[in-house]
Amino acid sequence: MRPAGADPHPAEALRRAEERLAWALLALPLVSVVGVVAFPLVYNLWTSLHEVRLGTLGGPAPFAGLANYVRAVTEPELWRAVAVTVAYALAGVALSVGLGLAAALAVNRPFRGRGVFRALFLFPYVAPAVSVAFVWRWLLDPVYGAVNWALQRAGAVEGPVAWLSTEPLAFATVVAFEGWRYFPFAMLFVLARLQAVPPELYEAARVDGAGPWQRFRHVTWPELRGMLALVFAVRFLWTVNKFDDVFLLTGGAAGTRIVPLWIYDTAFRLHDFGTAAAGSALLLALLLGAGIPLCRRWLP
Amino acid sequence: MAEIFLDRVTKRFGRVEALRELTLRVREGELLVLLGPSGCGKSTALRIVAGLEAPTSGGVWIGGRRVDGVEPGDRDLAFVFQTYALYPHKTVAENLAFPLRVRKVSREEEEARVREVAALLGIGELLGRRPRELSGGQRQRVALGRAIVRRPRAFLMDEPLSNLDARLRVEMRSEIRRLQQRLGTTTVYVTHDQVEAMTLGDRVAVLRQGRLQQVGTPRQVYELPANRFVAGFVGSPPMNLLRIHVERTGDGAVLHVGDQALPWPAGCGVGPPPPGPLELGFRPHSARLGSGPGLGPLRARVEEREYLGGAVLLHLDAGGQRITVERPPEAREQPGEGVLLYLSPRELVGFDVATGERVWPAG
Fold first, then answer.
1. Please, what is the Cα angle at A266 between A260 and A270, to 5 degrees?
2. What whole-number distance in Å separates Cα of residue B251 and Cα of residue B207?
3. Mutate to test the interface with B, among A208, A213, A214, A216 (most CBs of B within 10 A)
């Protein structure tokens, strides 16, 4: 036996080594969180309280108090954008979750070529936003677009339709895009949940005399309800924050200006960084207000 | 209540043959146990009766009507699953009522029947709970209740007690037996547990590798196993098997076990086994030690002694062959000691050495 006090106890040495390892593993995420989340957040809050214009960008700017916030909330365009955002998020997410549910049910049971379908269904979600948005723009183009060509050929429309630049068509189109692009996300979650439903439940229901619809209503639906609500909540929060899809499709024209686009326009077209930052802070507050209760509800 | 008849049912899953030409008649009102090791096809047979699987060939009749191609829900059977398969989001009352609601039974009758079944099974206080708030035994009762409530023509039970602990299993076993006798409903019960099969079954059908080995009362299966497999599978510890050679001598016979020659006891009321090589089977409790009457003495040496509380098992070496005998707990034989065995001629069976089929006694 070693004399007491000569060396740290082996268990103590092990604990210290573990601690060093923990810090080493935490270092990278910590740096990225501080750099990508914390710093922009603080900088945004600072900007929202100062008179930041093109001339004062990056340097000292006069303190503005809550003037930027007052300007933002008294701006009717912002409120219109909030209404568009909520409508866009609700409709788009409902569509994507509905399509995702249908797709998951379709590929849940084994059939020939199921793997191919599953892979194809993932495409909209994994393809880069810029490419799929431009493909949609090209397809829907009033002059060169395949959709207008086909509709005219079929006699469904008289002349070309400006899908992305007339109200309320543009809004409907961005909602359809959202539904199409994000249904694979809902599909993946619903599919995972479906695969976890014990097959005996379906067998018991069959023996009990339940038909396909009753099996869906009494077995599948109750098992999926929680997952669907979770997917809906998460997608809603993300969609409210979403910038690129609508920006690439319409740029916010024809009644599709959502809050992130209003912020973008205020900052980079009007160069009123302070008011844009105030709008961002308000959006963040709104999302936290909605998000924290949702997360409390669904995350363990 | 109805008779169930399987006619030469074969089931293949890809290249695996789960059932081969299974022909089996479940009599009206009886409890028939399908017994066999895991993978023997017993669950497949039950699922084919339920309509959850379709046979590759052969047919199933329920109550005299061919049901192949009939949906499970239209066969008027109830199935009890090993995992209970209760609807997790429904209360006990809703679980019990579900088969009735699907069948559009009136609300008054539904309520009356749910109450009746709940009283029968003693789960009246649990009606408002959900399955996850129930113990294993309570879930099992609800699963039974959901089967009973419909008053089906037959119960199909797939290892319904395997998920329960040993004590509860014994309790539920006798409860299932009582219920079945009281209701008189034809029941097919699948298990790998031979004790369950013996205690529950009016008759037992033993399956192995998709083939039916024997059907009979528990006593027939225990005392006159159809082959070496049944002899080893039914009963614990299993039946002893001794390689012997039978030689006819005038009006009697001599049984050669290794270098020992045992004369067939004259006047024992049972004729000797047929001449030639034979595998002689006897139950561990049917051997006497020390003195006759019976077939003996067979010299053996105690190799191991196992104390079971109510009995002692002696593992013996009889001329190079291992056998086991059961002794009362006060038995004194110790490892290393030599003993003399006497076997009761009435409790012997003989199997063909090559095929393993029982050749003696006939019938």
1. 155
2. 40
3. A208
State which residue of chain A sits closest to B143, comparing Cα positions: A204
Q: Which of B50, B102, B150 sits opposite A210 (nearest CB)?
A: B102
Assigned token pair, A50: 């100062």
Residues of chain B found within 8 Å of residue A203, distances taken between Cβ atoms: 50, 52, 72, 79, 81, 85
d(CA A293, CA B313): 66
* Mean of pLDDT values over B84-101: 94
Q: Which of A200, A203, A218 is facing B98, going by the closest CB pair?
A: A218
Confidence band (pLDDT; 50, 70, 90) for A299? low
Q: Decide if B74 touches A, using CB distance below 8 A.
A: yes
Q: How many helices (H) and strands (E) does chain B have?
A: 8, 21
For A194-220, write each residue's pLDDT tens digit: 988 999 999 999 999 999 999 999 999
For the domain spanning B240-360, the CATH number is: 2.40.50.140
> Distance between CA atoms of A214 and B156, rounded to whole angstroms?
22
From the candidates B53, B76, B102, which should be mutated to test the interface with A, based on the most A CB atoms within 10 A?
Answer: B102
Question: ipTM value of the model?
Answer: 0.87
Omega within 30 of 0 (cis) for the link into B275: no
Is B71 near chain A, with CB under 8 Å? Answer: yes
* Integer Cα distance of B15 and B18 in angstroms: 9
Does residue B78 sit at the A interface (CB-CB below 8 Å)?
yes
Judge whether B299 is closer than 8 Å to chain A, CB to CB: no
Q: Give φ, ψ of B40 to 5 degrees.
A: -85, -10
pTM score: 0.81
Going from N- to C-terminal start, the domains of chain A cover 77-298
B271-283 pLDDT, tens digit each: 899 999 999 999 9
Instruction: Tell me whether strands B186-191 and B154-158 are parallel, antiparallel or unpaired.
Output: parallel
CA angle, A159 then A164 then A176, to 5°: 110
φ, ψ (nearest 5 deg) of residue B20 = -130, 110
Q: Is A203 on the interface with B (CB under 8 A)?
A: yes
Q: How far apart are CA B42 and CA B20, in angstroms?
A: 11
| Superfamily of the domain at A77-298 | MetI-like (1.10.3720.10)
Q: Which of A205, A207, A210 sits opposite B50 (nearest CB)?
A: A207
Residues B293-329 have pLDDT tens digits of 889 899 999 999 999 999 999 999 998 999 999 999 9
Helix (H, G, I), strand (E, B) or coil at B194: helix
The DSSP symbol for B350 reads E
Q: How close A189 comes to chain B (CA, Å)? A: 20
Inter-chain residue contact B90 with A219, CB threshold 8 Å: no
Return the residue matching tokens 């793997």.
A115
Q: How far is the alpha carbon of B280 from chain A, nearest alpha carbon, in Å? A: 45
The residue ranges of every structural domain in chain B are: 4-233, 240-360
What are the pLDDT digits (tens) for A137-166?
A: 888 877 787 777 887 777 777 777 777 777
Closest CA to B77 of B177, B163, B160, B4: B4
Q: Does domain B4-233 have CATH number 3.40.50.300?
A: yes
